[in-house]
Every structure is written in structure tokens, then in C-alpha cells.
Amino acid sequence: MELLGALSPPWWLLLLSLLALLLWATRRSPWEPRKCPADLTGKTVIVTGANSGIGKCVAMDLARRNARTILACRSRERGQAAVEEIRAATGNPAVVLRLLDTSSLASVRAFASAVLREEPRLDVLVNNAGVTGLPFAITSEGLEQTFATNYLGPFLLTNLLLGEWRGWGELWRLWRLLPAHSLLRTDLLKASAPARVVNVSSFRHSLGTADSAFLTGQRNPGGYDAAYNSTKLMNVLFTAELARRLQGTGVTANALSPGVVSTSIMRHFSWAVRALFSLLRPFMKSAEQGAASTIFCAVSEEAAGITGKYFDSSCRLALPSAAARDAALARKLWEASERLTGLTEQH
């Protein structure tokens, strides 16, 4: 027995092997984007965080379907490189870059103003941009950077493109961003119905806590891992409340998990975490495989008309966590988010 024990691999190696096996088993999705015949000729889509990873793969697929594809990216250099790559791969010249930093409400407003002014329609909005591994820090606008990037910025962007604000304060802020004599359409998604809002969440939302005090740094969620999990829970709560408010408009909203995907999102973590991640990388989904559930929600006939739901990484309807199904919590978070973004101002 002692000899067998000596020959047995250490517990951590067994655990790592089991995790690798589980990751490998979930790599493929039963829904294949390339088998979906959806054609987006004449339609316009926006994909945030589209210069790399899942976002770029989603944009590539939508451009291949002949959509006017707007890549919303923070970096002009990386964003333009992605535009050129997608144009070359798809033969679609209607792939364009617009700068957007979802951690900045000013940037979100400038982006939304340009879209509302220049785009005659918007059929699909994919809120994909996200970060993890960042230290807990406050932006110049008084917001915690991870929560602003992953949740509050997308919340504001979606509402602006829907015209879902109350009061004249927000409308005046958008007007001030326009060149003289420009026209501003304030209900672009609704006017393009049937339209879809797709929010990229994560299976890790089940580990999160939705506390609006996180948004401004009044309360620290306890590390970047907890912050990421909580933003992903907020994404699901936002989706549910948004869908409720959009009933009857022809605009649907759904959230999803891409699964465990090999992308550059871990770049801010320590070298030890990145080393472990590298060991498991061969067993994870590729960015292209991880994009499947996002594309499913954005274009598939199966998802048409479905709203307020959560899809897992296999493109199947799934039940999110109990907290994510708390309608009262969703309304409370929405109201706090409206106040922080200024959507409720009456002047």
C-alpha cells in the first residue's frame, strides 16, 4: 500500500487532470454558426470589445453574413487592425471602427451620439467588452473601473441606443456632442425592430453579489475575482429587467455564458495564475468556439422572439442563479444604475 501511495500522483495533479477533462468535454457546442443560414444584408450590428478574442470572432461572423459591422474598441491601432483583418477574411467592406471605452461614461455618450446621428438603423447590439484581474480603482468619474467597464458602461450604452432615459438632462448632454444642425435619432434599436440586445455574461455570475455600492467603490467586493463575478451577475439582472421594460417593442434582450475560453482576458493576472491557465489552455474552447453562444443569441432563428433569458455555453436555455432571478434585486440595481449614469435627471 505504501508503494502504491508513493507511485500515486499528487492530489493537485489529479484535480488538474479532472479539470482538463471537464474543459475538453465542454469544448464543442451542438449549435454550429457556420451551419446557420442567417443573412444580415441591409442590417447593422455593433460589437463592443471587438478587436480580439470572442468579440473579434463574433464580428467576423456577423460581417461574413453581410452586416454593416461596427467594431467598438478602446484602441484605435488594435481596432483598425481587426477591421482590416475582418474585411480581408470576409470580403465585406462595410466593417468600420468606432472608438469606445465602456469604463468612461463620457466615451459611451460620445459613441452613442455618433451612432444615433450617423446610423439609420441598428439591428443587433452585442455588449461583449469586459475585463478581469484589474486592481480595485476609481475612475475620474467616480466609478470603480471593473464595474464601469463590464456593467455600468454597457447599461448606459444600451439605454442611449434605445432612447430609454427620462428627463431632458441626458438628451441635452447628447445634443451638446453633436456638430451644429445635426439631427439626433433617439430610438435607433426600437425603430429597427425586430432587434436584439445580447449581453455576454459568464457561468461565474452564480458566485457574484449585486450590490450597487460596488459601482462607486463605496464597498469592495473582495478582490478582482469577486468583482468580475459580480459584474457578470449584474449583466444577467440588467438583461432580465431590460427585457421586462421592452415588452411589446420588438426588441429582445438575452444574456449568455461563452464557457471557459482561451482568450487574452487573463492578461492582468499574476504570472502564477497565467502559468496555470496556460497548462489548461489546450483543453479550453478557442475564441471561435466560445463565440458560438453569442452568435446564437444574435442571429439564430431559434432565439428569435425569446427575451429575458440566459443561455449556457452550449447555446441552450439555462436557469441562472437564484440571485439572477430576483426581480426585486434587478429593479433595485436598475434604479441605482439610472442615478449613477444620470438617466433620471429632470433638468
TrEMBL record:
CDD domains (UniProt xref): retinol-DH_like_SDR_c_like
Signal peptide: 1-25
The entry's keywords: Oxidoreductase, Signal
Pfam families: adh_short (PF00106)
A GO molecular-function annotation: oxidoreductase activity
Domain of life of the native organism: Eukaryota
Family per similarity comment: Belongs to the short-chain dehydrogenases/reductases (SDR) family.
The protein, known as: Retinol dehydrogenase 12
Organism, scientific name: Cyanoderma ruficeps (rufous-capped babbler)
Lineage start: Eukaryota, Metazoa, Chordata, Craniata, Vertebrata
